[in-house]
Design goal:
Blueprint (H helix, E strand, L loop, with lengths): L7 H25 L7 H14 L2 H27 L4 H21 L3 H15 L17 H15 L8 H24 L4 H18 L3
Helix pairs in contact: 1-5, 1-7, 1-8, 2-3, 3-4, 3-5, 4-5, 4-8, 6-7
Length: 214
């Protein structure tokens, strides 16, 4: 399972997961009042600014989100290291279960636990394209993808592959589109909008599981 955008299947799956991450992050951003559930660079900056301003409760909140994200990423890596060719559907299945847990937590009035489950799911998602023993493709943030767009455009202008930058641009566009949909859904039904993300994750799990040998 490669960690690069080298096949049509990988590009479609990566874009779908970026859109899902954007959707969830749009929800989280509005619910948390300016913090993120998948973009930890933003939370790290917010933590530093809050420390400088003496807002230690906000800094602690940002740090808690970062810690949960790291735990989720570690759990995703453990799945990758132990599930052979089936690691993609296993990672996606656990992500879907965490998002379902978030929806249930919100239904019963435990929004804090819902956010925790969402952050764990987002950390875990980044293991979908992880290569054994190393890194993979970041799916919940697109700074690296935008850097690649610039680098590959430069390569194309100097004789390289003409459209090699396009898949990375699609990742960025998918995340932006997803975040817009998440914000609209949150304005409509508040944190209950996470159920749509859970349904999307379950659908991706089934599709990837059905095509894993192809």
């Amino acid at each position: 399972m490669p960690g690069t955008l080298d096949t049509g299947r990988n590009i479609v799956l990566a874009c779908a997961l970026c859109a899902l991450a954007g959707y969830v992050d749009g929800i989280g951003y509005l619910h948390l009042g300016g913090l993120f559930v998948s973009f930890m660079s933003g939370n790290s900056t917010r933590m530093g600014v809050s420390l400088a301003e003496g807002d230690f409760s906000k800094a602690a909140e940002a740090l808690g989100l970062i810690a949960l994200f790291v735990v989720g990423a570690a759990c995703g890596s453990l799945i990758v290291l132990g599930r052979g060719i089936h690691r993609q559907p296993w990672v996606l299945a656990v992500e879907a279960l965490l998002l379902i847990a978030a929806g249930l937590a919100h239904t019963f009035g435990f929004d804090r636990y819902a956010i925790s489950a969402i952050v764990l799911a987002m950390g875990l998602e980044n293991a979908v394209f992880q290569i054994e023993g190393g890194g993979g493709l970041g799916l919940t943030y697109v700074t690296g993808a935008l850097v690649k767009v610039g680098q590959l455009i430069a390569a194309a202008l100097t004789g390289g592959v003409r459209f090699a930058w396009l898949p990375n641009l699609l990742l960025w566009a998918a995340l932006v589109a997803g975040s817009a949909c998440g914000a609209l859904a949150y304005q409509w039904i508040n944190l209950a909008s996470i159920w749509f993300a859970a349904a999307a994750a379950l659908t991706l799990t089934a599709l990837v599981g059905a095509t894993i040998h192809r």
